[in-house]
Amino acid sequence: MIPPLLGHITLGIYAVLLAVGGVIGFVKARSKASLISGILSALFAVVALVLAVLKNIWGFPLGLTLAIVLFVLFGYRYAIHSRKFMPSGLLAIVSMVVLLIMTLLMLMSDEKIS
User: Collapsing DSSP states into helix, strand and coil, what is residue 34?
Assistant: First the structure.
């Protein structure tokens, strides 16, 4: 059984990684798009975290949705465009891990209800 605390920690770490990645993209490549998308993605992860901590039913699904969107985006960028592991490959893997944890947490919460 996976405790909800693991989901909270996962979303917190995910938010930090997304924000730091956006800042690094801006510093290294002067990419405003990286900064804005990194900060917005981190903000969505924080909102999902706060909702999950407050035991709102939308917390983990929002985290799952964010992870799915970013996994598809970065997986596509890695596979089709750049073939560079950093940052696309790494973020695709991190998003997949978050996706799996959120999915397991949601499945376990459904089992408790029934």
Answer: helix
